[in-house]
UniProtKB/TrEMBL annotation:
Family: Belongs to the DadA oxidoreductase family.
Keywords (A to Z) from UniProt: Flavoprotein, Oxidoreductase
UniProt name for this protein: FAD-binding oxidoreductase
InterPro entries the record matches: FAD-dep_OxRdtase, FAD/NAD-bd_sf
Cofactor needs: FAD
Entry annotated with the keyword Chloroplast: no
Enzyme Commission number: 1.-.-.-
GO molecular function, one term: oxidoreductase activity
EC primary class: oxidoreductase
Length: 358
């Protein structure tokens, strides 16, 4: 008998299975590898300020130290460096944005500082009109190495099924679940946007948020900082390349990379960069998100053997470690979940099609 079946090994499935495994529970992870899952396309940045009005990210004072420890710990277990501290050098794209930054600096936001003489330092690389602001500390996560490392570990312990999960083969009983001959106490959906197709979760107020990215070679730009120009961010990527993105689209007709995005990014880079560059690749994915921007964590209000850990939106890198630990403690030690994230807040709409007698 297995304790937990976990569907999906993105950020959510990785952290939840890691913490449950660490707590001595037997987990089986079912993951059909997809080259462009949200976690694989993400830049891996944890930024303490967010949005057009430059507000401090939800819960960030707690999330930053937790994330540092969590990625360091899992990195040590997998023998790979997963987290590094960086700066974001942000170049406001308008006077209005510059004013927002200045207001937050005046309010003594601890994560922001004006950069004096930004012209001297950054003129050789970029065209910018409204000075520059430093955001610090910002963490950069090596997501691909984490996914690969944990996958290898799971496989070596025979805890990974590399295949698609088929909902119709799941049988839920009052005290356990069965899937393809595996008996488990509970099953937890960590399969990103696909969880929203499940009859257990289809009524959640979820959204699908598309992000497109180009991967760029800029040989003469040192990979020390992350650079931000309005909604366009340049993040050090693998093999010395740069991740340049992204979009935030809730209405899209094409889930894949589009020519229009590539053309626009190319034009933007032509204007911003004073160094030669080449677009090497172009990728896209859909962020699993929640309409009210708070994740979905916990057990189904009627089917207590079925759970979900999903809906991280744009903040998976900081939320998944913190909430993954919390969910693991909830499952193994009955610790409470953060009420804003607990899926029980949707008790009414989730209970609809399931009666207690099911
Ligand atoms: C362009 C872009 C940039 C981003 N940048 C950042 C960032 O800088 N910082 C940040 O914090 N967040 C960022 N995000 C958001 C972040 O990627 C997500 O919050 C997070 O990765 C979601 O993780 P997940 O595990 O829920 O989903 P996913 O990463 O989608 O993982 C789901 C897993 O389930 C598997 N799966 C799905 N269906 C099935 C099935 N039926 N059977 C078996 N397996 C299945 C998939 O293969 C996948 O491995 C970004 C997202 C995008 C798209």
């Amino acid at each position: 008998m297995t304790d937990y079946i976990i569907i999906g090994q993105g950020l959510c499935g990785t952290f939840l299975s890691y913490y449950l495994h660490k707590a001595g529970k037997k987990v089986i992870v079912i993951d059909e590898s997809q080259p462009f899952s949200s976690t694989k396309v993400a830049s891996g940045v944890i930024n303490p300020v967010t949005g057009r009005q430059i507000v401090t990210t939800w819960m960030i004072d707690e999330l930053l130290p937790f994330a540092w420890n969590a990625y360091s710990e899992i990195g040590k277990a997998l023998d790979v460096d997963l987290i590094s501290e960086r700066n974001v050098i942000s170049f406001p794209s308008s006077q209005q944005m510059r004013d927002f930054y200045d207001r937050r600096i005046d309010e003594k936001n601890v994560y922001l500082a004006n950069i004096e003489a930004a012209d001297v330092k950054y003129n050789p690389y970029f065209t910018f009109l409204f000075g520059a602001v430093e955001i610090h500390p910002v963490y950069l996560i090596n997501l691909h190495y984490m996914l690969k490392g944990w996958r290898k570990q799971l496989a070596s312990e025979n805890l990974l099924l590399e295949e698609a999960f088929h909902e119709e083969q799941l049988k839920v009983f009052p005290d356990h679940i069965e899937y393809k001959g595996i008996h488990a106490e509970k099953i937890i959906y960590c399969n990103g946007i696909n969880a929203y197709q499940s009859p257990y979760w289809e009524n959640l107020p979820a959204t699908y948020n598309k992000g497109e990215v180009v991967i760029v070679d800029i040989p003469d730009l040192p990979q020390t900082n992350i650079y931000k120009f309005g909604s366009t961010t340049l993040v050090p990527w693998y093999d010395g390349l740069w991740w340049v993105g992204s979009t935030y689209e809730n209405n899209y007709t094409d889930a894949g990379p589009t020519e229009l995005f590539k053309r626009r990014k190319d034009e933007e880079l032509k204007f911003l960069l004073k160094q030669p560059y080449t677009i090497i690749d172009h990728i896209a994915s859909i962020r699993p998100a929640a309409m009210e921007r708070r994740p979905f964590v916990g057990l189904h209000p009627v089917q207590q053997n079925v759970g979900i850990f999903d809906g991280m939106g744009t903040k998976g890198c900081s939320l998944a470690p913190f909430l993954g630990k919390q969910f693991s403690d909830h499952l193994t030690q009955q610790q409470p979940l953060l009420p804003e994230a607990d899926v029980k807040r949707f008790q009414k709409i989730l209970s609809g099609r399931f009666s207690k007698a099911d």
